[in-house]
Amino acid sequence: MSKIQPIITLITDFGLQDGYVGVMKGVITKINPSVKIIDISNNIKSQDIFQAAYVLYSSYAYFPKGTIHVVVVDPGVGSKRKALCLKTKDYLFLAPDNGVLSFIVAKEESPSIR
């Protein structure tokens, strides 16, 4: 029986002009070297929560069940804003508590938020 390679997707407003995306991927692969990281977009307009929410909503269901979707777009970076972990029947979402997961919460049945 073959083990399924875990998938993590990224949606950020980091852009590609510096090393932030690379550092984030390095930290993830240091924790789990077998993970497959897929960039959905790192070019979300700076702090544009609505754009990030739309990109996530329009893309997440194309990924295999068990995919972890990570969104890092937040005007409150560095604040005391908490992160959310949203679990649905098929996916896990990690994002700031800023409304970026609103479309997913509205669409999915019985999501669990922590």
In CATH's first tier, which class of the domain at 46-114 applies?
Answer: Alpha Beta
Q: What's the end-to-end separation, in Å?
A: 33 Å
CATH architecture of the domain at 46-114: 3-Layer(aba) Sandwich
Element-by-element helix/strand order: EHEHEEEHE
Low-confidence stretches at least 5 residues in length (pLDDT < 50)? none
CATH superfamily of the domain at 46-114: S-adenosyl-l-methionine hydroxide adenosyltransferase, N-terminal
What does the main sheet amount to? 6 strands, mixed
Number of strands: 6
* Radius of gyration based on Cα positions: 14 Å
Query: What percentage of amino acids are in beta strands?
Result: 25-35%
Helix content: 25-40%
Oligomer: single chain
The CATH topology name of the domain at 46-114 reads Rossmann fold
Strand order of the largest sheet: 2-1-3-5-4-6
Total of DSSP H or I helical runs spanning 4+ residues: 3
Outline: globular
Integer average pLDDT: 93
Overall structural class, as computed from helix and strand content, comes to: alpha/beta
Q: What topology does this entry show?
A:
Elements: E1 7-12, H1 20-31, E2 36-41, H2 49-59, E3 68-72, E4 83-87, E5 92-96, H3 102-107, E6 112-113
InterPro entries: SAM_HAT_N, SAM_OH_AdoTrfase, SAM_OH_AdoTrfase_N_sf
Domain S-adenosyl-l-methionine hydroxide adenosyltransferase N-terminal: 8-109
Protein name: S-adenosyl-l-methionine hydroxide adenosyltransferase N-terminal domain-containing protein
